[in-house]
């Protein structure tokens, strides 16, 4: 596990973000503080595949925020408005993360949290999440 954390921290430095590991509740794999470029990954994740998938997904939230993409999702305080673009934004971020992870290590398959999920299930998760005052689920 220590090797995976070290690898992830080296990646974070390369990509210009910081990464921390801590226990997160529920099915949350990680989240990103967009303004500060701080990625938090659930310390309960144990596989390299899970951790790197989460890192790349969260990194692309930060990247998109920095580029001004998905403002209705990343900047919006209104949960109803946010939900209109949430699933589309998450799936776009999954695609970017999947491509980058493939470039990084072709042996690993990206574990997308949204790309393979049913629309109804994914929207319910996002809706439930945004009805609570938790960190970003991205």
Can you walk me through this structure?
This protein has helices spanning about 1-15, 50-65, 70-75, 80-105, 120-130; strands at about 20, 30-35, 40. The protein has about 140 residues and is mainly α. A three-stranded mixed sheet has the order 1-3-2, with helices on one face. Strand 2 and strand 3 form a beta hairpin. It is globular, with a radius of gyration of 14 Å. Mean pLDDT is about 85; it is low at about 135.
Short summary of the structure?
With 138 residues, the protein is mainly α.
Number of helices: 5
Silhouette: globular
Q: What is the CA-atom radius of gyration, in angstroms?
A: 14 Å
Distance between the termini: 23 Å
What summary fits the major beta sheet? 3 strands, mixed
Elements, N to C (H/E): HEEEHHHH
Q: Structural class of the secondary structure composition?
A: mainly alpha
Helix content: 40-55%
Major β-sheet strand ordering:
1-3-2
- How confident is the prediction overall: mean pLDDT? 83
Strand content is 5-15%
Low-confidence stretches: 133-137
Task: Give the secondary structure arrangement, pairings included.
Blueprint: H1 2-15, E1 18-22, E2 30-33, E3 38-42, H2 48-66, H3 71-74, H4 79-104, H5 119-130
Parallel strand pairs: 1-3
Antiparallel strand pairs: 2-3
Helix pairs in contact: 1-2, 2-4, 4-5
